[in-house]
Design goal:
The chain is mainly β and 265 residues long. The protein is built from no helices and 17 strands. Helix content is 0%, strand content 46%.
Length: 265
């Protein structure tokens, strides 16, 4: 049996934020490397006739030219990697989309799938020199539309107690939401709840639930998003409304599902 980790008091929340990736050069130490331009679309929609886009890094050939250039493509929230170490070539080949060999322009063709969720992706560019020292060049952001009929996720079940009886200094319980998405669970970006107190007030803070096999969740990637909560002696008794919601990578929101937990001593 997995150990359950209870993470917060119902009314005391920890919120973590992640800055969006920028579009500027990341590493300033460049071995006299001069990057003239990095080209990639800011958005791309997959169609039956168009399933790929081109990207290229142009270096000043009068300065240092790297031994190799490559690209990682990750979902914006870091949940999965679409491409790892995709090479950009300066060989004039049609397979890489490069126009002229040895002109300091490194190119690649990126193929996208209808199974790749719509949403934001980070394009991370890297290079290595003759000593195999690798550095990051830049990070660009791509808004991807997989061309499918994207429907919002659905909350199909809530697993939680109806009554929480405080019989000790602290009493713990696990709550979970089962999520379904016709576009696949990879399309689910976030599942959370807010709490309304017995007096009808709420601070509106979003408390994230997890499907990673940690942080209170039992099994990773099974569509059941979980988190532990605790109630303490002296806490206000009454009906606490837990308002559950889910969002997909395209920003579509599920309906709000409300579950009430009555806290009594």
């Amino acid at each position: 049996m997995k150990r359950i980790v209870y993470l917060f008091l119902p009314l005391i929340l920890l919120i973590y934020a992640c800055d969006d990736a920028g579009d500027s050069i990341v590493d300033s130490e460049t071995d006299n490397l001069v990057v003239e331009n990095i080209s990639a679309p800011g958005s791309f929609t997959k169609t039956l006739s168009d399933s790929s886009f081109s990207t290229a890094v142009r270096f000043n050939t009068g300065e240092f030219v790297p031994e190799s250039v490559w690209l990682n493509i990750k979902e914006n929230n870091g949940s999965s990697v679409l491409y790892r170490n995709l090479p950009l070539a300066d060989d004039g080949s049609t397979s890489s989309g490069d126009q002229t060999a040895n002109d300091g322009v490194f190119s690649a063709i990126v193929f996208m799938s209808a199974l790749d969720p719509s949403g934001k992706y980070n394009l991370e560019y890297y290079y290595s020199d003759a000593t195999n020292t690798s550095r990051k060049l830049s990070v660009l952001q791509l808004n991807y539309d997989n061309g499918q009929n994207n429907l919002p996720p659905e909350i199909v079940n809530i697993y939680a107690t109806d009554t929480l009886l405080i019989t000790a200094d602290t009493v713990a319980t696990l709550i979970a939401a089962e999520i379904s998405d016709v576009n696949g669970l990879r399309d689910v970006e976030e599942v959370w709840f807010t709490v309304t107190r017995p007096n009808g007030t709420s601070n509106g803070s979003k408390i994230t639930l997890f499907d990673n096999g940690n942080e209170g969740d039992q099994t990773a990637n099974d569509g059941i998003y979980s988190r532990g909560i605790i109630a303490v002696t002296g806490q206000t008794q009454g009906d606490y409304k837990f308002n559950f919601r889910a969002r997909d990578k395209a920003g579509n929101l599920s309906e709000i599902i409300v579950h009430t937990i009555t806290i009594v001593e």
